[in-house]
Every structure is written in C-alpha cells, then in structure tokens.
Amino acid sequence: MNILLVRGKREQGPDVIGQAILQNGDPLSFTVLETDDLLCSARAYHPSIFLLENSASLPFLGGLPGNPIAVFDEENHRGAAFLKDAGISAVDYGTSPRATISLSSLEELSATVAVQRNLVRSDTTILEPCEVMVRRTLPMSPRQLLGAAGVLLLAGVPWEKGLRF
User: In the chain, N or C: fewer CB atoms in 10 Å?
Assistant: First the structure.
C-alpha cells in the first residue's frame, strides 16, 4: 500500500517504508512518500490513501489513478474544493464536532479519537462510528494526530486495542 503525504514546496523527506498487521492478520506493507507534486507522485506510486496538508499546492483538476481516499484538515477549504471538483473520495479531520474524525479527549500521553460517521476503508470494509484510544509516543499537534489516525484507520490497521504512534 502506498500512502502519499502531500505538502507544500519544501525539502522532501525520505520515503518511509514500514509494515503493520491488518485486522484479518494479513501484513500491510506501506510506503509513505512526502511530496509537493501530487499528480506526478500519484501516477508513479498509485497511492491507496493520501494525506493532504493545508500547505499543499493543487495545480490540476482531474482524477487520480487507482481511486485513492484523501484525508484532509476540515479547515483546508481549498483542498476540500479541489477534492470535490476532482471527484476524489475524502474524509475530513479536525477539532470541531462536525469533522468525520475528531477528538473526544486529549492528554499529554494519550488521546481519544472519535469517528463520527461510517468510513469505507481501503479494503472496502466499513468502520462504523466509534472511539479509538491513541497512545502518544511522538510529539505532535492535535491536527497531526488526527491526520495520522485517519490514515491508519482507513488503511485497515487494527484499532480495537488502540493505536500507538
């Protein structure tokens, strides 16, 4: 599975290659590519999921190969319009109760993420509204935490015992 992190122009970080175990016991191999060029990267890597940061430049309108799912910040109005115009399935995250993925609670070392509506995951299973415990091991803002949780949930990572990142 390829996951794209789409940011604005900046020095690109290294690709991250990792592995997790899905709910059905199958391994999930993934590559995370940090890029500022959504179209070229999507054509090369055929992502299943992409995380659209607020600073991302959106130079084109049109579909992406493979029908990926986008995860985006609810305050990214330009990104939301782009996704709608391009016909790309999208899930928003944010701190308001209207966001599909939001925070129920936030503490120094943990958080509870609320999934407010059904999510169709990349393996086409449905994740119904629920609360997911997140154990925080890395420093990150609430919005970064919500974006990461959204990507992991959509990727099919088991969540019943909580997420850790």
Answer: C
